[in-house]
Amino acid sequence: MSSRNDEPQNQHQGSSDETDELQAGAPEANSFPSAEEPRASLCSSLQTLLRDELPPSPPRASSSATYGARSSTSRRALERRVEALKAERDREVREKRAILDENRKLKAANASLVSEAQRSRAEKAQMKQEIQNLKSETRVMQTEKELQKAEVRYRDDVIERLKGVLRRHHLL
């Protein structure tokens, strides 16, 4: 292999399987000479990060007492985690109940407003009907007044004619 492929192997402290993967996955020197070096250093950096982030393997316990202590510790940790999850769930349930109560209140207020709006519409329709009735009554009264005036004019006209007839006959 080329000396460029040897550099990542020297930087890497991992297993031979990882080294084989690096060697198999690295491009040949002829195909990508400019991209080979950054890729090798990137792979090496990633492997170093992965190795640093992995928790150290637990030491082998020789006695069951050590195992019991670890299991009780992990059991306590699990119990604390379960309690924390239960508390979080209870908090979320309380929040959701508060939201549902607020929703119910809003729905009740909305229903009240809807019924009030319906009453207002009914009152408005009734008022319009009354106005129409009053307008009709006004028209009837106006017509009656006009008829009365016409009747008075007719009577006046009849009286004037009668006076004229009486004057002609020198009775007046």
UniProtKB/TrEMBL annotation:
The lineage of its organism: Eukaryota, Fungi, Dikarya, Ascomycota, Pezizomycotina. Residues 1-77, 111-139 are annotated as: Disordered. Residues 118-127 have a biased composition (Basic and acidic residues). This is Uncharacterized protein.
